[in-house]
Amino acid sequence: MNATPLRFGVNYTPSQGWFHHWLDFDLDAVRADLDSIAGLGLDHVRVFPLWPLFQPNRTLIRPRAVEQLVQLADAAAERGLDVNVDGLQGHLSSFDFLPAWTRTWHRRNIFTDPDVVAGQVEYLRTLAAALADRPNFIGMTIGNEINQFSGEPHPDPDVITDEQAGAWLRRVLDACEEGAPGKLHVHAEYDAAWYQDEHAFTPAQAARLGGATAVHSWVFNGTAQRHGRKGTMTEHHGAYMIELSKAWALDPHRPVWLQEVGAPAPHIPAEHAGEFTDATIANALDCQDVWGVTWWCSHDVSRSLADFPELEYSLGLLTNDQQVKPAGRTIARIAEEWRGRDHAPEVRSTALVVDTGDSESAPLRSTCAPGGQFYEAWGRLTAQGARPAVVLADLAGDSEHLASRGITEVLTPEQVD
Question: Which domain holds residue 399?
Answer without folding.
Answer: 350-416
